[in-house]
Amino acid sequence: MGQAALRRIACPPNMRYRFPNIPQPVVLAMNGHAKEFFAAVARIAREIDFGTIEKLAAELAALRARSGRLFLLGVGGSAGNCSHAVNDFRKLCGIEAYSPVDNVSELTARTNDEGWDTVFSGWLEVSRLGDRDAILIFSVGGGDAERNVSVNLVRAIDLARQRGAKIFGVVGRASGYTARHGDVVLVIPPVDPRRVTPLSEGMQAVVWHCLVSHPELQMCATKW
To answer: Is position 104 within any domain?
Structure first.
């Protein structure tokens, strides 16, 4: 069946997967999409900067040795990654890690009362961010004050620089504020401009799992 014929098939959303014998254009198209998507993942895995990942591991080991704290910052899907990563850094690596996104009450109160742009910097000020500490940013763009995108990350980076805290990141854009002002920032190779967000956020998880299983960092074994 040709693409034109497939496009003529109209399947109501509530019936799309109920009758497997009816040709499903969405399902058929996904076969090609999946192959293309994972080809991009494989290319990223080949081209990613392993040296920067090793530098991140060394910096995080040094952070732990000086009894510093790690604050993870992210917005949207990257915020969810922060929550998961906090668990792994604490449980597997013995690093004192936190993320403001885990406290919904404070996050929303600060947003409501003071504004979204300072929601992270305000939280870090109360946490007394200092020169023994570090922030780790998960982001696609990495923040851009001029375009008014993820300005909360920009403000957090500025505060970290003022306090002498280290700035780490895993981002999808070399042009963003994090990549330009961080100490050690891994940029996910931009292999597909149509899928920068899903590839960047997906690879954030791969990278932090690489870090928490790194022999210089992992202290406790995983269950499996």
So the answer is: yes
> How many structural domains is the chain composed of?
1
E strand spans, 140-202: 166-171, 184-187
Instruction: Give the residue numbers spanning the domain of 62.
Output: 49-212
Considering the entire predicted model, what is its pTM? 0.86
Question: How many Å separate Cα 27 from the centre of its chain?
Answer: 29
**C-alpha dist (Å) from residue 84 to 6, 35, 64, 146:** 40, 27, 19, 30
Positions of E strands within 58-123: 69-73, 96-98
Other Cβ atoms closer than 10 A to 49 = 13
Q: What is the pLDDT of residues 99-115, one digit of tens each?
A: 999 999 999 999 999 99
DSSP 69: E
Residue 38 lies in a domain: no
Q: What is the CATH number of the domain that holds 203?
A: 3.40.50.10490
